[in-house]
Amino acid sequence: xxxxxxxxxxxxxxxxxxxxxxxxxxxxxxxxxxxxxxxxxxxxxxxxxxxxxxxxxxxxxxxxxxxxxxxxxxxxxxxxxxxxxxxxxxxxxxxxxxxxxx
Length: 102
Fold this sequence. Notes:
The protein has a single domain (3-101), classed as Up-down Bundle (Four Helix Bundle (Hemerythrin (Met), subunit A)). Helices cover 79% and strands 0% of the residues. The protein is built from six helices and no strands. It has helices at residues 3-8, 11-30, 34-53, 61-76, 80-91, 95-101. Helix 2 (11-30) runs antiparallel to helix 3 (34-53), helix 2 packs antiparallel against helix 5 and helix 3 (34-53) packs antiparallel against helix 4 (61-76). It is globular and about 35 Å long.
């Protein structure tokens, strides 16, 4: 994913794509496929880093960085309950993303 392409997406769509990777990790954890969960989290990290770099998301920079930190903890100590909570909190950062999920 290029930065130009990523930056063209609205904030809510960026958050939903990160949440989608967390959902993939969730499914992999529930199926007992830790390698697939790791790949999904790695992709979520990449997308989160691109989202942090995007100037239009500066209003929630602190929250995005805290989310990334918590995702890192869950990467080291995988927990499906924590992963689910991370998805829920991520989409709450943007009203449009929240409405799309709930």
